[in-house]
């Protein structure tokens, strides 16, 4: 019998020709929180970041939302998740906001990879697996089995 469930959702949209906005939210019996970033596509720079804690198990948790602003000025590139772990305050911060921040960065990166591969191909996936993997490998090297490098 299941006794607990947590849902994490993420979405991305174009804000304009130069930016995307990526949102991630976490909802469970004890939490309702969100992180949103605005990314400049050309250089993969996070130009704005906001967080919200609607519900948390303790009143003190709301103090941690300030760490979301630390994402501003980061470039979405290799090593960003480690940077985020430091910027989210660790013992002074919130592991769930960190998780949401990582999710926004991953989805943003994935979407921008899609732009470089061609929006339509990224969505419809008509290329054979081998060709698609070869195109994306540069960006996704060692991220999972299809993109493993020897």
Walk me through the structure.
With 150 residues, the protein is an alpha+beta fold. The chain has two domains: 7-112, Enolase-like, domain 1 (2-Layer Sandwich); 118-150, no CATH class. It is built from four helices and four strands. It has helices spanning 80-87, 95-117, 119-124, 129-140; strands at residues 7-16, 19-27, 32-40, 45-55. A four-stranded antiparallel beta sheet has the order 1-2-3-4, with helices on one face. Strand 1 (7-16) and strand 2 form a beta hairpin. The relative contact order is 0.14. The mean pLDDT is 91.
Short characterization:
The protein contains four helices and four strands. It is α+β, with helices and mostly antiparallel strands and 150 residues long. It is globular.
Give structural attributes:
150 residues; alpha+beta; Enolase-like, domain 1; 2 domains; four-stranded antiparallel beta sheet
């Amino acid at each position: 019998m299941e006794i607990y469930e947590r849902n994490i959702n993420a979405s991305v949209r174009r804000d304009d020709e130069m930016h995307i906005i990526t949102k991630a939210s976490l909802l469970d019996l004890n939490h309702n929180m969100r992180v949103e970033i605005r990314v400049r596509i050309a250089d993969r720079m996070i130009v704005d970041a906001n967080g919200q804690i609607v519900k948390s198990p303790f009143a003190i948790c709301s103090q941690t939302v300030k760490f979301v602003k630390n994402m501003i000025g980061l470039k979405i590139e290799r090593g960003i998740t480690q940077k985020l772990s430091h910027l989210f305050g660790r013992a002074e911060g919130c592991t769930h906001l960190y998780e949401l921040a990582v999710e926004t960065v991953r989805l943003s990166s994935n979407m921008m990879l899609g732009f470089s591969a061609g929006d339509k191909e990224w969505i419809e996936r008509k290329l054979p697996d081998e060709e698609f993997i070869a195109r994306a490998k540069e960006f996704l090297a060692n991220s999972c089995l299809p993109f493993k490098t020897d």
